[in-house]
């Protein structure tokens, strides 16, 4: 497992699909992303996530944030299911998690990240260099924008 420890005891790591960490991440995604919409993530085909890269942020030993990376092209990954525990929002966890996702994408030879941003999250992603493309659309019953970011440099720049 790759792991990075950040200030404020935020630990960022790649986790395995189907592991106990994955199950904890799915519960967080369900609570933050689906339940407020009257939906359940357990109605989704989670088997489709088997090949995805799963990233987890931990704070105080518990899941604080999560996101998935899915390959959608030779040099493009899609960032999906980005969620930060409501009690932990505003502490930089999302920003750190997206930065870790960008580093991870570079290690996977990706040159571009794409995501479907909820309208309310567009300003967050714009601050991180993501650019809207196309027109807004509805996904899971709420407005979204497709956003992209070209990743800089080489994977081994550090």
Which features characterize this protein?
alpha+beta, Aminopeptidase, 8 strands, 40% strand, 158 residues, globular, 3 helices, eight-stranded mixed sheet
Short structural description:
The protein has 158 residues and is an alpha+beta fold.
Please tell me about this protein's structure.
The longest helix is centred in the N-terminal third of the chain and has 15 residues, at 20-34. This protein has a single domain (3-150), classed as Aminopeptidase (3-Layer(aba) Sandwich). The model has no long low-confidence stretch (mean pLDDT 91). It starts with a strand and ends in an 8-residue tail after the last strand. The chain is 23% helix and 40% strand. It has an 8-stranded mixed sheet with strand order 1-2-3-4-5-6-8-7, with helices on both faces. It is an alpha+beta fold and 158 residues long. The chain has helices at residues 20-34, 93-107, 122-127; strands at residues 3-6, 10-15, 53-59, 62-73, 76-84, 112-118, 131-139, 142-150.
- Give the number of helices: 3
Q: How many structural domains can be distinguished in the coordinates?
A: 1
Largest sheet: 8 strands, mixed
Order of helices and strands: EEHEEEHEHEE
So, CATH architecture? 3-Layer(aba) Sandwich
Shape: globular
Give the rounded overall mean pLDDT: 91
CATH topology: Aminopeptidase
Strand order, sheet with most strands:
1-2-3-4-5-6-8-7
Radius of gyration: 15 Å
Estimated share of beta-strand residues: 35-45%
Q: CATH first level: which class?
A: Alpha Beta
Structural class: alpha+beta
């Amino acid at each position: 497992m790759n792991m990075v420890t950040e200030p404020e005891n935020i630990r960022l790591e790649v986790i395995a699909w189907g592991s106990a960490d994955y199950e904890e991440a799915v519960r967080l995604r369900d609570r933050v992303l689906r339940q407020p919409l009257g939906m359940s993530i357990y109605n989704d085909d989670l088997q489709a996530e088997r090949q995805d890269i799963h990233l987890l942020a931990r704070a105080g030993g518990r899941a604080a944030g999560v996101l998935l990376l899915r390959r959608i092209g030779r040099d493009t990954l899609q960032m999906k299911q980005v969620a930060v525990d409501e009690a932990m929002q505003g502490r930089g966890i999302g920003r750190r998690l997206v930065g870790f996702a960008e580093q991870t994408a570079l290690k996977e030879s990706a040159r571009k990240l794409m995501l479907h941003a909820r309208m309310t999250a567009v300003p967050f992603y714009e601050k991180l260099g993501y650019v809207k493309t196309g027109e807004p659309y509805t996904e899971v019953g709420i407005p979204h924008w497709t956003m992209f970011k070209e990743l800089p440099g080489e994977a081994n720049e550090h």
